[in-house]
Design brief:
14 strands; single chain; globular; 35% helix; four-stranded antiparallel β-sheet; DUF3626 domain-containing protein; alpha+beta; 11 helices; 2 domains
Amino acid sequence: MTVNFHPDRPLADGRTVAEHLAADGVYRTQYETGISNGGLGGDRPRWEQRMFGDSGSRPVYGALNLAGHPDGAAPRFGSCHLELRSHCLDRATFSLGDSHTEPEILGTAGTFAAVWEGLRAQVTRTGNALGVSASSADAWVAALGAPRTRAGRTLDDYVEAQVHDGLTLSVDVAAVVADPAFRGTPYEGHLRALGVPLRWHGGFRLPAGELPDALRGPEAAALGRTIAARYGEPVLDAAVLGRAARDGEHPQLVKYLWHVLVIMGRPA
């Protein structure tokens, strides 16, 4: 399982996510931090009531990286990710699709058959699931085990994982995998201070002049060009977008720009 996050986003006290992780040694839920790279509040309590009943569970959200994508199972939610240790599977629940879609197919590590069959059915319909293409469901299963060095770019196609009872970095995290945009920055130092191995994936970089109006709308593309001009950074990456977020740019448009980088960005 992987938990994607942006290390440079500020929390209420002005410190960033990476600083809090290094200082606290735990990964806090969005209810505790007050920030989310998906949806915070709104209908989420109703989704959780539907999925978990009256347990009062407030899980950490991640995704199951069955394909072994180096950018994590759900890069939509952040440029870096934590790789969780296998024992965390025992206290995780899974859904085929994001919670906000109110998925009907749910499971646990011990009752995963419905999710697995849902993935196979998706391959039969579309020829692809979890960013892996195949001519048949059996061929897809065989292809899952292949080593991967290229980004999966699975913006919307993932098995969501809800990890219950918290995450302690020293116990539950095997490694942190970071975007190379943070090499040589203070954020690299904060990530190294987590006390787990640090690796790098390929990253996502895109010249601002190549931002398409059609992908996430002309407002997002225009903001990207403005950010590039303001900072003298003609090529956008995770660190440049994080700087814009910290400077108070429209959070939804910055989020859209990150989606564009995941879809179209080239490795560093």
